[in-house]
Specification:
flat, 2 strands
Amino acid sequence: MAQNLDKQVFFLNEFYLTYKAVTDAGYNVDFATPNRIKATIDNESY
């Protein structure tokens, strides 16, 4: 299976509640992707 490393996307609905719970608990969140590619919200999330 080939990986597409040209674009890293995530679904907003799979991300937000976890992010909010972690940050509400006082933690900072850093994002990391392969090859330092900017992660974007998948357009189908809207």
